[in-house]
Amino acid sequence: MKLLLKYLKDYKKESVLAPLFKLLEAFFELLVPLVMASIIDRGIGNGDMGYVGKMGLCLITLGLVGLTASITAQFFAAKAAVGFAAKVRKALFEHIQGLDFTSIDKAGTSTLITRMTSDINQVQSGVNMVLRLFLRSPIVVFGSMIMAFTIDVKSALIFVAAIPMLAIVVFGIMLWTMPLYKKVQSHLDAVLGITRENLTGVRVIRAFHKEEDEEERFKEAASVLAVSQTFVGKISAVMNPVTYIIVNGAILALIYVGALQVNVGNLSQGEVVAIINYMSQILVELVKLANLIITITKALACADRVADVFGIQNETRKPAGRECEFPDAYFSVEHVSLTYDGAGAESLSDIDFTVEKGQTIGIIGGTGSGKTSLIHLISGVYPATAGGIYLEGKNIDGMDGNALKERIGMVPQKAVLFKGTVRSNLLWGNENATEDDLWQALELAQAKEIVESKQGGLDAVVEQNGRNYSGGQRQRLTIARALVRKPEILILDDSASALDYATDAKLRKALQKLEGKTTVFIVSQRASSIRHADKIVVLEDGEMACVGTHEELLAGCSVYQEIYYSQYPEERPMEDAR
């Protein structure tokens, strides 16, 4: 929690005024039993109704002033709590945006979402309650005890016995439940993960008729969450009845002692009523304090989880100590291997090839051969676990991440568009791009006619995830977004899979006309998409089977031959066909 308190520094005034106004309310509340005692002893006892009316107006005034102080305190507390939560959420989002893929993989997407939403909401409620009640409740409790001592010492000794017992109950339950609330939040992470997985994969689930299986899986996770919440809820629920028993027992003792004191003339009836009112105030405040403790316990558990995310830091990428073998090459992948964090085996092993500026490199292989993993290394998304990748002789692991990204245009395997307009999505590539730049990128990506056919043109609406566009349209728009950047290196990670062969061919011809010497990496399952590349890298089971031109591979690479002839069986030589 200490790590998060710095986000309250802009709300110092509100954080001070909210408790102060609550203390003012508590002060007026402590005067009420004394006024009531005066009404009973002097007004009702002497039959002075004028005095009763005057003191009744005093009670109303105390109530109105207390209400005004309470509303003012609530305003300042809410302003501080909401502003604090907004700053924490913004800082957490910025921190997550700065994490590399390895760190995000370690944390897990579902838990990051939970911590940014549910956990921060719990922390916000905790801050709000603390500013409103954390000082008020103890002041009322101890103030009532002090006021009781001013009335009668013997009766007040009952307060001295009751308050420590109540403190033991409240803080004992708090210490017991705090770790349990952390477990509840972790179970919530699991439920959120299953929910997210089902929503994103709903079409696959329905296609394979797995609704019942997924419902059962969700029920199991929800059941675990419900059991843990019920268990910790039962423990927390014990707090109220136990505090009621202690306080009501104390009230019974007060009535007994007070009656004896009245009989001997040491106390008036009004003073007994005042002492009982003070004990009732303690009861109410301790119930509030019990609920506050539960909220604070949840908030502290959630604050620790949020702080844990802030504690996740990217591992410093240390460039390999080995020198670049091909310093004159524009781009070189030298004996590179990749092992994902937590994986049992390498995803890529000893990949080695060079690229000249302006060349088109095709990457092909069967499913699971490591094509996307290789692209992740080339684009700097993941660091190589062995070997090195060099751009103009410099290891990319030692380069500034932003500087590297500015030189690379990446079109991921899954086409992703964001809610807004076509223009706002394209400007992700280059926020300073002119309208001519946007149309030029659209024309190269074979997406010009898509935009022209939409009402509004570049300002046509794009819904969340681009769901109002087809798969092929989304792919072409994402390619256009990368081209707006006019990158030195363009990476197409199987990003034309939804395009028909004619559009795919037009796209490849257009890419050959890119201004400057743009180096293009094309990952594809289609041999037709990469057959005209200057160099083709063939992968099999995470290893480089062979590298060369289409003609060279067709003549001497069995893996490439198998892929190519499976797509073009009519070109298979007669002896192979037999």
Q: What does it look like?
A:
The protein is an alpha/beta fold and 578 residues long. It has two domains: 306 residues, ABC transporter type 1, transmembrane domain (ABC transporter transmembrane region fold), CATH 1.20.1560.10; 247 residues, P-loop containing nucleotide triphosphate hydrolases (Rossmann fold). The chain is built from 21 helices and twelve strands. The protein has a six-stranded mixed beta sheet, with helices on both faces. A hairpin with a 2-residue loop joins strand 4 and strand 5. Helix 5 runs antiparallel to helix 10, helix 6 runs antiparallel to helix 9 and helix 9 runs antiparallel to helix 10. The longest helix is centred in the first third of the chain and has 50 residues. It is elongated, with a radius of gyration of 36 Å. The N and C termini lie far apart (73 Å). The mean pLDDT is 84.
Fold blueprint:
Elements: H1 12-44, H2 49-98, H3 101-107, H4 109-134, H5 136-151, H6 153-200, H7 202-207, H8 211-237, H9 239-263, H10 269-310, E1 331-338, E2 348-355, E3 360-365, H11 371-378, E4 386-391, E5 394-395, H12 401-407, E6 408-411, E7 420-421, H13 422-426, H14 435-444, H15 448-453, E8 461-462, H16 471-484, E9 489-493, H17 501-511, E10 519-523, H18 527-530, E11 535-540, E12 543-548, H19 550-556, H20 558-567, H21 574-577
Adjacency order of strands in the biggest sheet: 6-9-10-3-11-12
As for the number of domains, it is 2
CATH class of the largest domain: Mainly Alpha
Q: First CA to last CA: what distance?
A: 73 Å
Structural class, by secondary structure, is alpha/beta
CATH superfamily heading of the largest domain:
ABC transporter type 1, transmembrane domain
Q: Looking at CATH, which topology of the largest domain would you report?
A: ABC transporter transmembrane region fold
Q: Major β-sheet, in short? A: 6 strands, mixed
Radius of gyration: 36 Å
Shape: elongated
Count of DSSP helices?
21
Binned, the helix content reads 55-70%
CATH architecture of the largest domain: Up-down Bundle
What's the average pLDDT? Answer: 84
Count the beta strands: 12
Beta fraction = 5-15%
Uncertain runs: none
